[in-house]
Design a protein that fits this description.
457 residues; mainly alpha; 3-stranded antiparallel sheet; two-stranded antiparallel ribbon; elongated
Length: 457
């Protein structure tokens, strides 16, 4: 066969292949029925040269490096090799079959099982190309689109909803005013009243909210219900008061003007519910802390005597709370005395106010020193720590009484030392041990000073 005839046959074969491909394309684009059986005899073989020219990544079950510019079929497992710095890809676990790719305006598929397509695979591929776009989920259908539209709201609908929500948003001030208006209603039910008080307690943690509440006259409304017959109401009212008063000078002043301290002192004396008593102490503590004038009024009204009477009751927790409060007030005075010579006018004025409060002298006169050693028998470590801290503050004033607790303190010191040796990772017991050790040293030091004074005499 001559060379010319061979070339002619090659051209003819190439032309035939081109015409066949164009026919397949026309069928895909113009056929309305994707199940057309005219495609049943269609097969296509993909040669290596064609794949390389299109530069399509051919995935397997093993990791392969993705070369620059390669088109990657969808649905592969891709990673960055930290050793080589190159991207790698492979088939997902249990994955096989055809993978679709798209590069610019071109799109196609690769057979991960072998390098040629069967008749059934070609039919499936042509149907997929006809039924959907490659860059979308092949399972997407008109029915699913309608379902999604019913399931999700449009942007305009969302804007309308948000617009309505914004119209209903209230500031904390508006909420508090609304709660107070409901609370003042004469026919409000017990459950509703408790719910309102609970909401108020939440909002009044904010200092500005508490100030606004006091400006609205809310303090006076709460004071009225300190005499409520229901213990639940009294308990919640006292809790709300304590929350509003805490570290809030403006509200503290309002409370003094509203006579809150007199009512709280009365409740301490006559209240029978342990829960209510505990919350009354919380409110009283919030009122007098860092407020010298309130502390002065507290002493003038016989506050220490009232608190002392609570030591006749069996509740150790209540006693520890009282001791903690008094210790904190003493430490406030010590701090004010220590910084009383500073040039700041505010600090100097506060120091002068504290000097008018004879708290330490009254504590000694009323025999408070005798209460503390008995509380060392409490097993709760946190409560015992608070008692020891109070004894450290009062060691100079109450030395003669505290000496009787020397043996108990030595036993506690040994207990903490043993616990600190067992728990070497935590400094808690070690800190407790050093705290008791310092107290004992202070007791001995004060005792030595007294002995020296007697020898000189």
């Amino acid at each position: 066969m001559s060379l010319g005839r061979v070339k002619t046959m090659q051209y003819f074969n190439i032309l035939s292949l081109i015409l066949f491909c164009l026919s397949c394309y026309w069928l895909v684009v113009h056929t309305d029925n994707p199940n057309d059986e005219d495609l049943s005899d269609a097969t296509i073989e993909v040669e290596e040269e064609n794949l390389d020219s299109k530069n399509v990544f051919y995935p397997t079950n093993e990791w392969q490096t993705i070369k620059p510019g390669q088109t990657i079929p969808r649905g592969l497992h891709i990673r960055l090799n930290l050793k080589t710095g190159q991207k790698e890809a492979k088939l997902m676990e249990g994955d096989d079959g055809m993978k679709y790719w798209k590069h610019g305006n071109k799109q196609g598929m690769v057979n991960t099982d072998r390098k040629l397509f069967t008749k059934e695979q070609l039919k499936k591929a042509l149907k997929s190309f006809k039924a959907t776009k490659i860059d979308q989920d092949p399972t997407l259908s008109l029915g699913k689109e309608k379902q999604d539209k019913q399931k999700f709201r449009t942007m305009d609908e969302l804007k309308e909803v948000l617009k309505d929500m914004n119209m209903d948003v209230k500031t904390d001030l508006q909420v508090i005013r609304g709660l107070l208006d409901k609370y003042r209603h004469m026919n409000v039910k017990l459950e509703d009243k408790l719910s309102i008080l609970e909401d108020l307690e939440y909002y009044l943690h904010q200092i500005d909210n508490a100030v606004n509440f006091a400006d609205m006259g809310g303090m006076e409304d709460l004071v009225k219900d300190l005499n409520a017959s229901d213990s639940q109401i009294r308990s919640e009212v006292v809790l709300v008061l304590g929350t509003a008063l805490q570290s809030n000078p403006k509200v503290q002043v309002k409370a003094i003007d509203s006579g809150v301290i007199q009512h709280l002192m009365r409740m301490v004396a006559v209240e029978t519910s342990h829960t209510v008593q505990s919350r009354v102490l919380y409110a009283l503590s919030s009122l007098v802390r860092h407020f010298p004038y309130a502390q002065k009024r507290f002493l003038e009204l016989g506050g220490l005597t009232t608190l002392k009477n609570l030591f006749q009751k069996p509740s150790d927790k209540l006693k520890v709370k009282i001791v903690t409060l008094l210790n904190d007030l003493l430490l406030e005075q010590h701090y004010a005395e220590k910084h009383g010579d500073v040039k700041e006018k505010h600090q100097k004025e506060k120091y002068l106010q504290y000097k008018k409060i004879p708290l330490l002298e009254i504590l000694k006169e009323q025999g408070w020193c005798e209460f503390l050693p008995d509380l060392l028998q409490i097993s709760d470590l946190d409560s015992r720590e608070k008692v020891i801290n109070a004894m450290k503050t009062l060691v100079t004033t109450c030395r003669q009484t505290f000496v009787s607790a020397h043996k108990s303190l030595q036993e506690i010191k040994s207990e903490y030392e043993a616990l600190s040796e067992k728990d070497t990772d935590d400094s808690y017991y070690r800190d407790l041990f050093h705290s008791v050790d310092r107290l004992l040293k202070n007791l001995n030091m004060v005792g030595n000073e007294h002995s020296s004074n007697k020898d000189e005499l």
